[in-house]
Amino acid sequence: MDLVWKNIGALSNIPAQGARRLCIGKSGPPIAVFRTGEDRVFALIDECPHRRGPLSEGIVSGTTVACPLHNWVIDLTSGLALGLDEGGTPILPIRIVAGEVHVGLSLAAGESA
Ligand code: FES
Taking the model in full, what pTM does it have? Predict the structure, then answer.
């Protein structure tokens, strides 16, 4: 699979200690792009590993997000559930170029972003 960098706009378009939800392509899962209070940026598939809750609607604290449905805490750096909970959601690579956020998308052959 090839990696394609998708520019999603300025870092300032993502609320600090919040997230933006992206729908890219026709059939792919939504992506949550998080910005911490320290302006670190992470991207995860926007589905909690518990019951697919929308992590983009969760509460960001440090480098974690608490799922809005049942409060599982997910590590934004790894996508893994913390504490006694088990499971994880895929993470996507991020890069910042001239103040703009790019998400790395893995595309199957013939697919476009
Ligand atoms: S769906 Fe996220 S904690 Fe249950």
Answer: 0.92
